[in-house]
From TrEMBL:
Residues 1-20 form the signal peptide. Gene3D superfamilies: Leucine-rich Repeat Variant, Neutral Protease Domain 2, tricorn interacting facor f3 domain. Belongs to the peptidase M1 family. SUPFAM superfamilies: ARM repeat (SSF48371), Leukotriene A4 hydrolase N-terminal domain (SSF63737), Metalloproteases ('zincins'), catalytic domain (SSF55486). Its EC number is 3.4.11.2. This is Aminopeptidase N. PANTHER family: PROTEASE M1 ZINC METALLOPROTEASE, PUROMYCIN-SENSITIVE AMINOPEPTIDASE-RELATED. Residues 262-467 form the Peptidase M1 membrane alanine aminopeptidase domain. GO terms for biological process: peptide catabolic process; proteolysis. Residues 38-224 form the Aminopeptidase N-like N-terminal domain. The lineage of its organism: Bacteria, Pseudomonadati, Bacteroidota, Flavobacteriia, Flavobacteriales. Its cofactor is Zn(2+). It catalyses: Release of an N-terminal amino acid, Xaa-|-Yaa- from a peptide, amide or arylamide. Xaa is preferably Ala, but may be most amino acids including Pro (slow action). When a terminal hydrophobic residue is followed by a prolyl residue, the two may be released as an intact Xaa-Pro dipeptide. Keywords: Aminopeptidase, Hydrolase, Metal-binding, Metalloprotease, Protease, Signal, Zinc. It comes from Polaribacter atrinae.
Length: 815
């Protein structure tokens, strides 16, 4: 499962829920009284009622102890019939709308199989369980535009099983420590394509309908079952002799391989580094409308949210789904082949998938690119309310709480530290051994530790106790003592955290233009290390390789940061230095260092330098501006070009018009967007005219720069267009300037006479308020609607009554 990262942070802000660790009673995985063996399903759909008509044959056997009962999870269903081993008589059972407790006619012994037949109706709209930060809803089965009334949205069906929502659409033992083979017959109108786990065995037409038969012979957990239904085009690809398919709407079929085309290479790369060949018989990816998360690793049938849809003008800047694509592929080893035996051990699924993003980027784009990604993941964890959460957590409040920045980001960083400590050979051999020993089974973290200990001969209890079964991270205060007579420097490390951490640490000492790397091991809260020098060091860099997940405090002056910006190996340290140096650009050396950083190997450093450079500064002169012009024209990254244009645009200099005109011809939408805004401030008619010439699909993608122009223009005619992006701009962005822009846009729409804009904004509020209701986002938008009602009352406009009715109708849908 891949979290919608931006959404996660936003909902933490607007939500009243606390994500800090609350110590409750121990939460074990449920006992395995019976084991699933095989699941056979036959389903069709009632689109009008948003229900599934199902038949299930569930084959099971006692795990160890003899039993005459079985309990199946089945949420909000109507149970029509239950039979046993093809005997057409109902057995005694008790159903409480959540689970079925069935009395068997005899006591079954270990490994004695039996098959239950259950005829049922699944009613996902009646399901009561809540979602999580990663998965915003939990009703298992989703009908999208089921009545077809929304002409702008296709009719689709898709499922979402994690954590325990597969039992919303078929009876099962809905636990990650269960494994079952499966087959499913899906009957749909012939116009629809279907997707499920495993291989499509047959398709049989019957009048206006068609039944697709999917079969999977390898065992996997019930939460990984999947069905997808819709009008899709299937784009064919392959890895070796394994089919790799991309299910996309017709509009995006030409771009499917641009979006997903690295999939075969990713499968091959992960197979090679893990030493375990991709273990399944196909790999399909489908894009679902209104999907409740970022993506989900259903075995051989991955679903992505519609943010995966991108056009060449976006992909030239960055494929925003690439990390997610890698993440879900890696789950097919960690999560699907070997599954966490309990949600407490979720790190065995999500931490590994998170770290796979680093591994892929390191392989494909180099270590610098991977380190940039790791920094952002670590920073997100450090910025969150996570310091009291264990990675392996048995005392969670709700299993959904496990899907957080500890299980994902911190867990990925911990694997990076473990890899660094053990070395690549031992680390990847450990992964191979763990996967091989536990394939098609469930496992827990202790098994991972024991594998690494067996391979390396090292005791790793200290590592797992502090990182997996403990909380927090080192918070280190650094000081230096120089003995100028003996020419030695002592580095003092004081941990300020409550827990004592032990860890390896890289220290770089720069002296006489040379760098020396010292690898030390910190064994307590108060540690010191002494090194000789010939000439007093120019800089000492702690955690020089950036591997240790930590917060480090030390006293540095401007000259230290300038040197660090130019010479530090690790991306995070150069970034830190740039932010500090940029604060002192009234000093020429600092300004020159920021200017030089615009040529940094890291494109994100280049972007940051362009954003921070002070062109009003007395040192800026023509040479810095000329350099930015060159970047705007020639930087290999279009995102850097766009930032350079944005920086030049702040000068409002008509002499730069040719740069912006060239930008408007770019294939990159980010470059076009920044060029439009820059052009607006020196030639408004040209910018406005160009904005209106853009095709609707590009206007939608460039909503933020166009909103900036139309708000400045006070253009009432464009308010309906702006209204569709207001909520996303206010809440789903991390940029303060963008939030401020859309707050201004909200106010302008709220006070306007434009009923179409009011309707578009209210419609979006209802959709997002409903979609994220489990995070109290409905209350946020209701309060915004109340503000709109008050704004309308305060205005004497022709449509005041109608606009107020529109807003109140929206409120009624959410209340």
């Amino acid at each position: 499962m891949m979290i919608k990262k931006v959404l996660f942070f936003v909902l933490v802000l607007v939500n009243t829920i606390s994500f800090s660790q609350t110590h409750t009673t121990y939460k074990p995985e449920r006992d395995k009284i019976n084991d699933l063996v095989h699941t056979k399903l036959k389903v069709d759909f009632n689109f009008k009622e948003k229900q599934l008509n199902g038949e299930a044959w569930v084959t099971a056997k006692p795990h160890f102890y003899a039993t005459n009962k079985i309990t199946l999870d089945a949420k909000a269903m109507i149970i029509h019939q239950i039979s046993l081993d093809n005997k057409k008589l109902d057995y005694n059972y008790n159903y409480d709308d959540a689970s079925i407790v069935i009395d068997l006619p005899k006591e079954y012994k270990k490994d004695e199989e039996f098959t239950l037949y259950i005829k049922y109706t699944a009613r996902p709209e009646k399901v009561q369980q809540k979602g999580s930060a990663a998965i915003t809803d939990a009703k298992g089965l989703y009908f999208i535009n089921a009545d077809g009334l929304d002409k702008n949205k296709p009719t689709q069906i898709w499922t979402q099983g994690e954590t325990e929502a597969s039992s919303c659409w078929f009876p099962t033992i809905d636990s990650p420590n269960q494994k079952t083979t499966q087959e499913i017959y899906i009957t749909v109108p012939k116009k629809f394509v279907t997707l499920s786990n495993g291989k499509l065995m047959s398709q049989i037409e019957n009048g206006t309908d068609r039944t697709d038969y999917w079969k999977m012979d390898q065992k996997h957990a019930p939460y990984l079952f999947f069905m997808g239904v819709g009008e899709y085009e299937v784009i064919k690809d392959s890895y070796k002799d394994i089919p790799v398919d991309y299910y996309v709407e017709k509009e995006y079929a030409p771009y499917a391989k641009d979006i997903f085309g690295l999939t075969p290479e990713m499968i091959g790369f992960f197979s090679k580094i893990l030493g375990v060949e991709y273990p399944w018989n196909k790999y399909s990816q489908i894009v679902g409308r209104d999907y409740v998360s970022g993506a989900m690793e259903n075995t051989t049938a991955v679903i992505h949210g519609e943010q995966a849809y991108q056009t060449p003008g976006q992909l030239i800047d960055e494929n925003v789904q690439e990390n997610t694509i890698a993440h879900e592929i890696f789950h097919h080893w960690f999560g699907n082949l070997v599954t966490t035996e309990s949600w407490s051990n979720l790190t065995l699924n999500e931490s590994f998938a998170n770290y796979s993003e680093y591994l892929w980027r390191e392989h494909k784009y180099g270590k610098l690119d991977a380190d940039m990604h790791l920094f952002e993941d670590c920073q997100a964890y450090l910025d969150g309310q996570n310091t009291d959460k264990h990675l392996v957590r048995f005392n969670y409040v709700d299993k959904e709480d496990m899907f957080d920045l500890v299980s994902y980001n911190k867990g990925g960083a911990i694997l990076h530290m473990l890899r660094n400590y053990l070395g690549d050979d031992a680390f990847f051999l450990g992964l191979k051994t763990f996967l091989t020993e536990n394939k098609y089974q469930a496992a827990e973290v202790h098994q991972l530790r024991l594998v690494f200990e067996k391979i390396t001969g090292k005791d790793l209890n200290w590592f797992f106790n502090q990182w997996y079964f403990g909380a927090g991270h080192p918070r280190i205060e650094v000081s230096y003592d120089y003995n100028t007579i003996q020419k030695k420097v002592t580095i003092n490390l004081l941990q300020l955290n409550v827990n004592e951490f032990k860890f390896p640490l890289a220290i770089d000492i720069f002296e006489n233009g040379q760098k020396t790397r010292h690898n030390v091991f910190v064994n307590g809260n108060d540690a010191s290390f002494t090194f000789p020098y010939t000439k007093q060091p120019t800089l000492i860099q702690i955690n020089a390789d950036g591997v240790l997940l930590s917060e480090i405090t030390e006293n540095k002056v401007l000259s230290d940061y300038i040197f660090q910006l130019k010479n530090a190996e690790n991306y995070a340290h150069r970034r830190e230095a740039l932010l500090e140096v940029a604060k002192k650009q009234e000093e020429k050396d600092a300004f020159s260092a920021v200017e030089a950083a615009m040529s940094d190997p890291s494109y994100k450093i280049r972007i940051l330098a362009l954003q921070k450079i002070d062109l009003i500064n007395k040192f800026s002169k023509k040479d810095a501006i000329h350099k930015i012009m060159q970047i705007a024209n020639n930087d290999p990254k279009t995102l850097v070009q766009a930032t350079a244009i944005e920086t030049l645009g702040k000068l409002t200099d008509p002499e730069l018009k040719s740069i912006f005109e060239k930008g408007l011809q770019s294939k990159s939408y980010s470059v076009i967007g920044k060029s439009l805004v820059a052009m607006y401030y020196i030639d408004k008619p040209t910018a406005v005219a160009k904005s209106r010439e853009l095709p609707d699909e590009i206007r939608k993608i460039l909503a933020t720069p166009l909103t900036r122009i139309y708000i400045e223009e006070k253009d009432e005619n464009e308010l309906p267009f702006i209204a569709k992006s207001v909520l996303s701009g206010m809440f789903l962005t991390g940029e303060d300037t963008t939030k401020s822009l859309y707050q201004k846009a909200f106010k302008q729409i709220s006070e306007s006479n434009n009923s179409e804009a009011i309707q578009n904004l209210v419609d979006d509020m209802v959709v997002k308020g409903t979609q994220y209701k489990s995070f109290n986002f409905d209350k946020v938008v209701i309060n915004l609607m109340r503000t709109m009602v008050n704004d309308q009352k305060a205005k004497d406009t022709a449509n005041k009554v109608r606009n107020t009715e529109i807003i109140k109708e929206g409120m009624a849908k959410l209340l």
